[in-house]
Amino acid sequence: MKLSAKSGRILFLLILISLSLLGFSQKNQSTPTPVETSQKVETINHSNPNQILLYLIIVFSLGLMTFAYREYKLKKSANIDLSLQKNEIEVQKHIVDKRNRDITDSLNYARRIQQAILKTSLRLEDYFTESFILFIPKDIVSGDFYWVKSKNNKILFAVADCTGHGVPGAFTSIIGTYGLNNLINESNLTNPGEILNGMNVLFKNSFCQSEGAEIFDGMDISLCLYDPATKELNYSGANLPLHILRKNSKPQPTSHIVHNDNSYTLYQLKPNKQPIGYIFEDTNYVTHEVKLMEGDILYIFTDGFADQFGGLYTKKFRYQELRQLICSMAKIPLQEQMKTLETTFKAWKGENIQVDDVTFMGIKIS
């Protein structure tokens, strides 16, 4: 049995006092004379104070020893319980770590599959000498995707933002990529508005969504058809606009201006305010036609950049600042523009959590 240091000192002191009193009592006892015997008989009912104190100390010492032993047993039991809990925590931690590794390995494999699917589309730079795609997923896999296709000597290209991000968004992006390829290859569609109408039907049928459901799956998309021979562009969008940057000295491609400076103006072709798949209205997507000019720069981007929180006051980057940034980069090559966008995004985000996937496409017409 182990006692606490304080209890041990008290008990040791009591034992010393008891021994001292016992020795003192024995030392003062001698052979009684007749007179003393008579006096002892007279005081037989009177106890020796030292003996009474000794008895009290012994009783108190026994009580203290009993209390200390009880505390020792409780502490020992608590230590055993704590050890068992610690072992259980270690076992659970090992299980959680293994599951996390398995999930991460699965996600990394899913990322390779998603990257392979993205690479099945054509390379943008094969058709546009100056172009870039900035792709920054929030998680290992992404709900954003980009797509490029050639059909009848024309180039189709798109950027899409599927519902959610991570694994749910990645699954939806696979359906989106499949839908675009199927409508182009099997249905021979090339008009962007007609393609988006077909995508809308595909998503509604794929997810069996009904009005009043709590969860809706779909996507925002900007889809373009470009004819290099005539520089004619057809565009249709579901919540994602197309931006055209053009010199101020040239005619306006559209009347909707979102930003300008002394040299350049940023125009916007507006999309339908109807996402693909989860608005239950039979509205057809509008196809816009525009004549492009040499030196025009096209931009399509999802909302992940503008919605990112950061900066000194942890606020959103906002579209106004993003459009101003685009105009300020007008005179530098597109590859440098991509680096500027990436650097700006990371600096703005800082240590904050990335809120959404980021996809940014830039194309210069030559």
Structure explained in plain terms:
The chain has two domains: 5-95; 120-364, Phosphatase 2c, domain 1, CATH 3.60.40. The chain is built from seven helices and 13 strands. It starts with a helix and ends with a strand. The chain is an alpha+beta fold. The strands form three sheets. A six-stranded antiparallel β-sheet has the order 1-13-10-6-8-7, with helices on one face. The chain has a five-stranded antiparallel β-sheet with strand order 2-3-4-5-9. The model is unreliable at 40-46 (pLDDT under 50).
Per-chain topology:
Layout: H1 5-27, H2 34-42, H3 49-119, E1 131-136, E2 144-151, E3 154-162, H4 166-185, H5 192-207, E4 219-227, E5 232-238, E6 242-247, E7 257-260, E8 264-269, E9 288-291, E10 297-301, E11 309-310, E12 315-316, H6 319-328, H7 334-349, E13 358-364
Antiparallel strand pairs: 1-13, 2-3, 3-4, 4-5, 5-9, 6-8, 6-10, 7-8, 10-13, 11-12
Helix pairs in contact: 1-3, 3-4, 4-5
Largest sheet strand order? 1-13-10-6-8-7
Characterize the biggest β-sheet.
Answer: 6 strands, antiparallel
Distance between the first and last residues' Cα: 91 Å
Cα radius of gyration in angstroms: 42 Å
Which descriptors apply to this entry?
alpha+beta, 13 strands, Phosphatase 2c, domain 1, 2 domains, 366 residues, 5-stranded antiparallel beta sheet
Quick recap:
The protein is an alpha+beta fold.
